[in-house]
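Supplementary notes for students who missed Thursday's class. We covered one full example, reproduced here. Read the sequence, then the structure, then the short commentary at the end.
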Amino acid sequence: MTDSQQPNPKSRRSGRPRRSRRSASMGRSGERPRAVRLSQRSTPSNPKTGMFGDMVDPSRHVRRTRRSSRSAWPPQPRASLLPKLPLPLVYGIRLLIIGLGVAAIAGTVLSVLTPADDQVTNSSSTAAETQSAVTATATANDDVLTPTQELESIKNSLVELQELIPELTPTIYMFDLDTGNYVDVAGNAEVAAASTIKLPILVAFFKAVDDGRITVDQTLAMQSSQIAGGSGDMQVQPPGTRYTALEVATQMIINSDNTATNMMIDLLGGAPELNQQFASWGLTMTVLRNPLPDLEGTNTTSAQDLVRMLAHLHKGEILSLRSRDRVMNILQRTYNKKLLPAGVSETTVSYNKTGDIGSVLGDVALMDLANGKRYAIAALVQRPENDGRARELIRRISQTVYQTMSKAPTLKPSDASTETNTQSMPQSDNTLPEPTFPESQE
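Structure (token representation):
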């Protein structure tokens, strides 16, 4: 047998003694032997001993290392990068997370149980009023109505008129457009607007015309949902009847047509859009809540708001001169001249808009006197249902103010631009006959 065929005697000797020594060592102390460190020196390979020579089998060393690593129990926790929080803080965070979860679940349950229709109704009923109040606080412009001195003699006379009929409650505001002198009898009180709210709606229409959003000759088709009773003749026409936008705006004022008013409200974007515009003009009490005729009086305004609207027109800042002239021309042609215009002379040019429901009778007017004096006045009288004495009271109020203002000296406007705008306002057309009309609630 050649040397290459001989078994390796050194390998046979190195295997058996090691097993015996390992078992003996385990028997004595119960400890595992330490892993044998391999020599780092490189030795030439011996053909008799093989490639590894005296080196320990590497696979045995790997198996012992794995067994020793598995024997360690319990395992040590890994080091965390976050600092260890105090126990009370941990409990507090957990409670917070639980609370947020419970709140989310409760909110979901409530949203399911609450009817959606009620939510929409409540939000729509208050959105216009809230938006009007908030916007008015931020954008109200008092420069157009800056009072200087209250005319106590006129105010005392008006209070005496009120005391003669205690069942009636008038709210009055008068403003001299030349001097700023004024009379205020609960003028900022919120009162049912009736058809006087059509005045700011008319201004909003011509503002849209100036902005290019509407043209005066565009055609509107009357819808069945817009037809309303009360004053006006458009209600007798069939749905689908077509009018120009200017015709609708004109009928809304001169004949106080409620159907035309509802068409105009829809054309201008509805009540929320109009209320926001009213508030931007400083009309803090003017809120549109329901379509006309609104016999319950949910739409509100104040005597001061109505006078402020006329003062804006007089100053010529909201509308272009052409649109301002059209507004004043329409107001001059109103059919009902039996309230504030009835208390002034025939030489006075009046631009007015009345309002009439069972609980309130009112009128707002700009008076252009023969002596050149101009003043704006509004009177809203709260009354028992359709009490006719309110009509006579408003006439007496107008007469009392006119008697003083007609004797007052005329002052030329100091602002040249204001003087130009004032001179461009339309004058009276005495050739137009005053039509007769039946009494009806507006």
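Commentary. The first helix runs from residue 9 to 29. The chain has a mean pLDDT of 79. If anything here is unclear, bring it to office hours.
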